[in-house]
Design brief:
three-stranded antiparallel β-sheet, 239 residues, alpha+beta, five-stranded antiparallel β-sheet, single chain, rod-shaped
């Protein structure tokens, strides 16, 4: 029989549990602790009223956010409509201004054309009377002269041949202005003297004469010359 001495190793007796059973027990204890902790946490929130208030506030914020988004969409739509109306108004105003400017320019052109036609009508009305004397003789019609604001004299004259298909006339047109200068009789002519003219059926000649200062012009005389021969002559007063 074997003896045990004092120097022999000590021995401990332990109850041996299988490791799956150990894990099951550990999981059961951990789950129980977690359930107790969660229950205590929820109980604390209910007592304090934190969870109920947070949910209510969250729902209120969500409602306000949706309301704000809807309002923003309405305002954006109204802004777009207002911008569209403004753009349309700008386009209408621009178009109206362009049309007004064109109308003003057209009116001005028509007034100028009307005045020109009136001048031509008055000028050519003098063609209606028949030419005195022999058929085919030159005649002066429509001699006119007017004072301009500048003091110059604007003149025009119409020379006609009173026959059908006349031979073209080539000659000179001479103007002589008469009046007073320093209380004495005065006459003057445009610089350059007589004007060369060619007349088939009729010809209109016009120009502007600048009299000397301190001169009062009272009349103008026009002569149509063929060489040194006067073929037609007319004098008209200047009002």
């Amino acid at each position: 029989m074997r003896r045990l001495t004092v120097s022999a190793p000590r021995m401990a007796v332990r109850s041996a549990l299988p490791w799956p059973f150990r894990w099951a027990v550990f999981a059961l204890v951990a789950g129980f602790c977690a359930a107790i902790s969660l229950w205590a946490f929820e109980l604390g929130k209910d007592i304090a009223g934190v969870d109920h208030g947070s949910k209510a506030q969250l729902q209120q914020l969500q409602f306000e956010n949706e309301t704000l988004k809807a309002r923003i969409e309405i305002l954006t739509s109204e802004r777009d409509q207002a911008q569209s109306v403004a753009n349309t108004a700008d386009t209408v105003l621009t178009t109206a201004k362009v049309a007004s400017d064109k109308l003003t320019e057209t009116t001005r052109q028509l007034m100028l054309e009307n005045q020109r036609l009136k001048d031509d009508l008055g000028f050519f009305e003098k063609l209606i009377p028949t030419v005195d004397g022999n058929a085919g003789a030159l005649a002066i019609r429509g001699l006119q002269a007017e004072r301009l604001a500048s003091g110059d004299l604007k003149w025009q004259v119409l020379v006609i041949q009173g026959v059908k298909n006349p031979v073209e006339f080539e000659g000179r047109l001479e103007l002589v202005f008469a009046g007073l200068a320093d209380g004495k009789a005065w006459t003057g002519s445009p610089v350059g003297g007589a004007l060369n003219v060619k007349i088939k059926q009729y010809g209109r000649v016009e120009g502007v004469y600048s009299p000397p200062a301190q001169t009062l012009v009272k009349s103008v005389t026009v002569k149509v010359l063929n060489g040194q021969t006067v073929r037609a002559q007319q004098t008209t007063p200047i009002p």
